[in-house]
Structures are given as C-alpha cells and as structure tokens.
C-alpha cells in the first residue's frame, strides 16, 4: 500500500468569528489538514459546537486563549490569523519569533500595505512589526503565486479588493485601460462587517434597504491604489464606494473603465486569456454578467464584460463570496501553494444554489 501522505498541523487564531468558522468549514474537508489549535477571546473554554452548532458532529479542539499557546511545542505548520487589525501584528511577531518553522497567513489588513507610512495614515497608528511587514507577501494567489510559494508570512487580500483586483490587474498590466478613469461600485453582504454585536447591524437597521459607507475614505482604497499602481507601473488613484446589502454572503463589484485603443471585446479577450488556466476565476461569455448566487460558498470569482453605450467605455462586473474567495477560501488556497499541496485541495465546493 502507498504511504499515507503527511498532514499539516493547523492553528486558527480567532476561530469564533465568521472568517474563522469558514476556515474550519473548509479545513475539515481538507484531506491533508489537521486542526490542532483553535483560539478565541470571549469564547475561550467553549467548544466550537457551542459557538457554531454546525460543527457539532466533529471532534475539534476546545477554544483557548492565544496567551496560553506554546507556539514551539505546538509545532504548527500553518497558523491562520483571523484577528482584528493591530492585535494581529503583536501576535504574529511573537509567534514567528518563537516558532521558526510555522508559516503564517494573516486575514487582517495588518500586512497588506508595503509602506508603513501608508498603514499609519489609513489605520491611525504606527505599525507594531515593520520588520515583518517588509517580508510579507501580498496573497492574491493568481497574481503572486510564485512569491506565495516561498513566503513565510502571507497577507491575505481584502474581499472588496480581491473582487476588483482580479478583474482589473490584467487590464492595467496590458495598458488596455486608462488608469485615471476607474470607478468601482461595490456591494457586500453582512458578514463582511464581522460577527461582533453592533447596533447598526441589527436586522431592523439593515433589512429592506441598502446604504453606502466609508464614502471617500474606505481603508481598502489604499490596498487598491497600491496594487493598481504596481500593475500599471505608475501612480493610480481609484474611485471606490462600498455598499452594505441585506444578504449574508457575497460581493458584487460593478466597475467602469475606458479602453485605451481597446474595445470592450478586446478587454474581454484579455481577461479570458489571462485566466484561461486558472481554476478559481471564470470569465463569462461577452455580454453576460455574474450574480452573487453563482459563487455562494465556493472559492470562485466570476466576471463578465459588457459594452457601455458610451463609445470606448466598458462595464466589468465581478462577483465572489466574501467569506470564501474573499477571505478564508483564498487563505486555504495560499496554504496549499505554500505547502506544495494541489491548489484546489479542500476547495472543490460548487456554489450553493438556490
């Protein structure tokens, strides 16, 4: 009989939130992942089944405090950090110093911005681990796969940014669109706001309505500007407005661009060519657009291109599940790349519909 393939010892820090629960959901069916540590703050001492009843049938570690973790003794192969920004920097700094072989995938915003000054400007305080920030790899897998493969610390992109960047980076790299005329109108489900109790997130506050937030100053703007500037080879500042929609999961980005000697059909052909071999990005036929229900629960990004009625302009619509491809699914995808596993392992879930 062939030898059993080695499994990876996994820790999920911040397992009681939505992205933590999504990580556990995906890792439970990953054939080479062994969950050995789950942490939480207020829920420490409870079982995952106490916090999320869907995990009742599964034998999982009891939730513990991060402060009690012996990183060296645990011998984690990978630690996923689903913690609030700011807190994450200190935890990861300690973890990486004490456990030299543990790879880290951070789902917060703490290591996404390469410029410490930009981080301080957008997040209101100096970075607590600038020496680690220099070595962090931005984890947009389809774009930075080679760097992710050899990284020890991966900064998982934001959900809004993943949705827009996958649609636009190939076009900016090809100089097919005007970098000064990009407008991103994005809409997210409620889970994007986290699981903490907030008055403005009560059912009666958000049901039967939609509203914009972070207008003109959302933190993801810095991430978008950084990645679009790298792709274009020049400074890019985009217009981006997020909206909250009363649904649980999903992001839909409607993006307005102007082609540079490139028709909408040319832009579609460029995207089709760029992602022809990618298993988690699907470009629809020209003129078709995706819906969030098409990707719910999956690690897929669907995108479509439509010609605007204004000559030379195109409308690109991109959709993903904010908890999966926008967060935990992409994190597992990055883990697979970092550990040399098949990239699709544990991520074969087809979208749930209806």
Question: Secondary-structure map with pairings?
Answer:
Layout: E1 8-13, H1 18-28, E2 33-39, H2 48-51, H3 71-74, E3 78-81, H4 87-98, E4 103-106, H5 116-123, H6 130-133, E5 137-138, H7 141-150, E6 153-155, H8 159-173, E7 183-188, H9 203-206, E8 211-212, H10 220-232, E9 239-244, E10 251-258, H11 264-274, E11 281-283, E12 301-307, E13 313-320, H12 324-339
Parallel strand pairs: 1-2, 1-3, 3-4, 4-6, 5-6, 7-9, 11-12
Antiparallel strand pairs: 7-10, 8-9, 10-13, 12-13
Helix pairs in contact: 1-12, 7-12, 8-10
Kindly list the characteristics that best describe this protein.
354 residues; globular; 32% helix; 2 domains; Dihydrodipicolinate Reductase, domain 2; 6-stranded parallel sheet; 13 strands; 12 helices; Rossmann fold; 7-stranded mixed sheet; alpha/beta
Give an overview of the whole structure:
The protein contains twelve helices and 13 strands. The protein has 354 residues and is α/β, with parallel strands linked by helices. The chain has two domains: 163 residues, NAD(P)-binding Rossmann-like Domain (Rossmann fold, 3-Layer(aba) Sandwich); 163 residues, Dihydrodipicolinate Reductase, domain 2 (2-Layer Sandwich), CATH 3.30.360.10. The chain has a seven-stranded mixed beta sheet. It has a six-stranded parallel beta sheet with strand order 2-1-3-4-6-5, with helices on both faces. A hairpin with a 5-residue loop joins strand 12 and strand 13. Helix 1 crosses helix 12 and helix 8 packs parallel to helix 10. The longest helix is centred in the last third of the chain and has 16 residues. The termini are far apart.
